[in-house]
Amino acid sequence: MSEKTIPYKIYLEENELPTSWYNVRADMKNKPAPLLNPATLKPMTAEELETVFCKELVQQELDDTTPYIEIPEEIRNFYKMYRPSPLVRAYCLEEKLQTPAKIYYKFEGNNTSGSHKLNSAIAQAYYAKKQGLKGVTTETGAGQWGTALSMACAYFDLDCKVYMVKVSYEQKPFRREVMRTYGASVTPSPSETTEVGKRILAEHPGTTGSLGCAISEAVEAATTREGYRYVLGSVLSQVLLHQSIIGLESKIAMDKYGIVPDIIIGCAGGGSNLGGLISPFMGEMLRGERDYRFIAVEPASCPSLTRGVYAYDYCDTGKVCPLQKMYTLGSGFIPSPNHAGGLRYHGMSAVLSQLYDDGLMEARSVGQTEVFEAAEQFARVEGILPAPESSHAIKAAIDEAMKCKETGEEKTILFGLTGTGYFDMLAYERFHNQEMTDYVPTEADLKVGFDGLPKVE
Amino acid sequence: MSEKTIPYKIYLEENELPTSWYNVRADMKNKPAPLLNPATLKPMTAEELETVFCKELVQQELDDTTPYIEIPEEIRNFYKMYRPSPLVRAYCLEEKLQTPAKIYYKFEGNNTSGSHKLNSAIAQAYYAKKQGLKGVTTETGAGQWGTALSMACAYFDLDCKVYMVKVSYEQKPFRREVMRTYGASVTPSPSETTEVGKRILAEHPGTTGSLGCAISEAVEAATTREGYRYVLGSVLSQVLLHQSIIGLESKIAMDKYGIVPDIIIGCAGGGSNLGGLISPFMGEMLRGERDYRFIAVEPASCPSLTRGVYAYDYCDTGKVCPLQKMYTLGSGFIPSPNHAGGLRYHGMSAVLSQLYDDGLMEARSVGQTEVFEAAEQFARVEGILPAPESSHAIKAAIDEAMKCKETGEEKTILFGLTGTGYFDMLAYERFHNQEMTDYVPTEADLKVGFDGLPKVE
Q1: What is the CA B315 to chain-centroid distance, rounded?
Q2: How far is it, in rounded angstroms, from Cα B86 to Cα B377?
Q3: What's the gap in Å between the CA of B185 and the closest CA on chain A?
Q4: Co-location of B435 and B288 in the same domain
Q5: Is A93 near chain B, with CB under 8 Å?
Q6: A291 and A213 housed in the same domain
Q7: How far is CA B256 from CA A58, A83, B5, B249, B250, in A?
Q8: A197, A230, A263: which is the final residue of a domain?
Q9: Do both B356 and B401 map to the same domain?
Q10: Under an 8 A CB cutoff, do B422 and A174 touch?
Q11: Which of A92, A177, A178 shows the shortest C-beta gap to B81?
Q12: How close is the nearest chain A Cα to the Cα of B444, in Å?
């Protein structure tokens, strides 16, 4: 197909939307290690997991053999409200960079929650509703996940209790108001509404909270209430499964125009977006059908893949959740408070950790200032204001495109643009005012996290 | 075509995008009255207008006979980055309302500027660039227009000077940062950078500014600088021309599926969105081809159509701009400071004013609280967080759909959803906290504005 016939934006028709999610674990020779019970260090059973998570989601979490899992019609109908998301040819960015590379991005920001998080939120809310639950609880830091979940719960008329890290609750009042618009109750964490919250407040009066503490409160709020379960927006294998919709749509759109990416790039925090984007392409590679380069891009301030260890670790600071084998900086690792975007999680999805350990994926870390430079450059030519998280992928995509300019290679680059930065303007302001710092943890900083790793085997 | 085959979202292909704007004035029997020179009260000549506005835009402003004006390729290429915008069938809202009405909305919020304003901003920036100008100046209140213009200027590498009403500059720092991200300089108005700004600051120390003052500063900044012109985001006929892309795309999409709207609804401030949305449909009616009902929805706090007079008036508080015959509350009218959204302009587009005066369009006003109730109801089922401005149209659309529920009529309703409310969360917060007030001007309030109308003939 001739170059000129590829439109700026490729939208699929509704009847071209995937009807199943793709479970990359089914094609992995080395499966992710099982979740362990934090008390017994034995693999978690479905029954144990079902006290915290919805029944069908537990099945999805444990299923590493079924390649395709049908997307229920109710979820497909919701997807139709904002999907397919556009696959965009970045003609303007290519022109600006004067690169022979062909750059595409899958844009997930065109829904009110502003990010890809909605893809899994609606699935998790659906299964909670189907199970006859009254509601779900969760934690949120920056607020993207909480926003997505609030929206999903409003749609299925489920109660939604969000524990929001207190400092974010105070600094990001607009995120809070979006969640309230969707009918969620938002509690600053730590709070007096849970035992663990009270204990932490007693021990640390005046604390501004942490994600670990908010997780603990959300889990307690779910497990001590009749008809509630806890839900999570990243890291879990079920989340990667739901997010595979990103990669599946990308692949259908590219196949339609005969486009084959050479390099696929995604930002990586807990791995929800990256895992979703690369899954179907990785599947092809795992089945020996085609080769790709996959690049995970993480912040230099929270470098779980590039500087972490592959080990069993706690998923939360409160150590109430199952242990997971993953690339991790240790649950005690504290990312810099000056770090702007999300991508602050100490660990990485078990699926991506295993793929990385098997040498099937590359990883690199980038600094905060260069990320915002890339974001601004992108915004000015492509007309989308990217979230700081997404901009990690933009930075790497620009770097790869500039390498092509040096070598003259016409590589095709695909990256995931996970969301918009409308609620991140404080960070942009710091960038404009040159008040942004580029924190890189020292070896001593990392040792704190590594020293806290659990002893397993 | 059977009901079921209409998708949630109708996207046109790139080759279906309109290649010309539609100039509804060409089909109007009663043309809008000419702009008058404020000094001589004689019709403004092109030469006079060209000292303030770009040459080609002056031609478009004065042209009331050419029905179709070609969209230059450069603008079409930019449009392709975010257009066609989706025409959405509000299946979920219909279901929620249990109405037999079929509701469609044309959603203009899927671009970084977050609103339809970009459609005209890119056109105005293009003509400025083509004329070889260095830059443009403008004013912005809430910031939607300033954001759109900044983005357009970044694309064409034009300098962009935005005078932002000081109170908004301070209360909406995030809007300011978006503009800075696109490279615009944003000056709180009144400022020391202009003579008029200095004079106002001397007369009213500590003033927080007004749109009228910001216009005066922007016009002075343009006319006293080599290579600059002033641009405006609403009210002008050229703006309605550019915004006709909204209606043209809607019509192509509806024709494709055999959908004929009975009622077309838009929010109305200066008229840019409403005029753009209804233009091609109004053209059909003016040519006697088909009948529609058109409804302009304005805030009860700034009711230029429903409670204003049809008269020549000043377009700005500083009285430096041409006089325009329009429905107006008088340039001295002060809308309530508690009014949340835009739609605060004292007058209305000359085109829409004439159509309204000819009985071709209806108008109604709605209260602020009921608008936010409609906004929240819409957000929860349709998954889009609407701007307060856009929500005026949502309110009227829901009202019409509920009438259909009473009568059992299966009317087809089309409304314009102009943008997203990401930067309006302070207003949503007031709504959630029940701190929102419903200001309606008294007859005495209106008299202040009417008494200041210029004496023309």
Answers
A1: 15
A2: 20
A3: 12
A4: yes
A5: no
A6: no
A7: 45, 21, 12, 11, 10
A8: A230
A9: yes
A10: yes
A11: A92
A12: 36
What per-residue string of b and e applies to B61-89 under the rule 16 or more CB within 10 Å gives b?
bbbbeeeebebeebbbebbbbbbbbbbbb
Any chain B CB within 8 A of the CB of A95? no
Q: Answer whether B95's CB lies under 8 Å from B76's CB.
A: no
Do residue A139 and residue A261 come from a single domain? no
- In sequence order, the β-bridge partners of residue B185 are B161
- Assigned domain for A132 exists: yes
Q: Is B426 on the interface with A (CB under 8 A)?
A: yes
Range of the domain at B416: 3-17+84-114+237-451
B291 in A contact zone (CB under 8 Å)? no
* A456 within some domain: no
The domain tally of chain A equals 2
ipTM of the complex: 0.87
Q: How far apart are CA A333 and CA B423, in angstroms?
A: 34
Contacts of A10 in chain B (CB under 8 A): none
Does A248 share its domain with A369? Answer: yes
Bridge partner list, A11: none
Looking at chain A from residue 65 to 84, which residues have their Cβ under 8 Å from any Cβ of chain B?
Answer: 78, 80-82
* Pair (A160, A268) in one structural domain: no
* Residue matched to tokens 């940062």: B177
Q: Which two tokens stand for residue B267?
A: 């929010």
Q: Of B213, B230, B247, which closes a domain?
A: B230
| Cβ-based contacts of A155 with chain B (< 8 Å) | 92, 380-381, 383
Q: Is residue A79 part of a domain?
A: no
Question: Is B76 among the domain residues?
Answer: no
Q: What is the CATH number of the domain that holds B52?
A: 3.40.50.1100
Give how far A156 is from chain B: nearest CA, Å. 9
Give me the tens of pLDDT residue by residue for chain A, a chain 457 residues long.
Answer: 445 589 898 989 889 999 999 999 999 999 999 999 988 999 999 999 999 999 999 999 999 999 999 999 999 999 998 999 999 999 999 999 999 999 999 999 988 789 999 999 999 999 999 999 999 999 998 889 999 999 999 999 999 999 998 888 887 888 899 999 999 999 999 999 999 899 889 988 888 887 778 888 999 999 999 999 999 999 999 999 999 999 999 999 999 999 999 999 999 999 999 999 999 999 999 999 999 999 999 999 999 999 999 999 998 777 888 999 999 999 888 777 666 667 888 899 999 999 999 999 999 999 999 999 999 999 999 989 999 999 999 999 999 999 999 999 999 999 999 999 988 888 899 999 999 889 899 999 999 999 999 998 6
Is A192 in the same domain as A226? yes
d(CA A314, CA A32): 16
A and B: number of Cβ contacts within 8 A:
123
Q: Is A13 exposed, middle or buried (0-12, 13-18, 19+ CB in 10 A)?
A: exposed
B447 and chain A: CB distance < 8 Å anywhere? no
Please indicate, yes or no, whether residues B248 and B101 belong to a single structural domain of this protein: yes
Residue A426 touches partner B, C-beta closer than 8 Å: yes
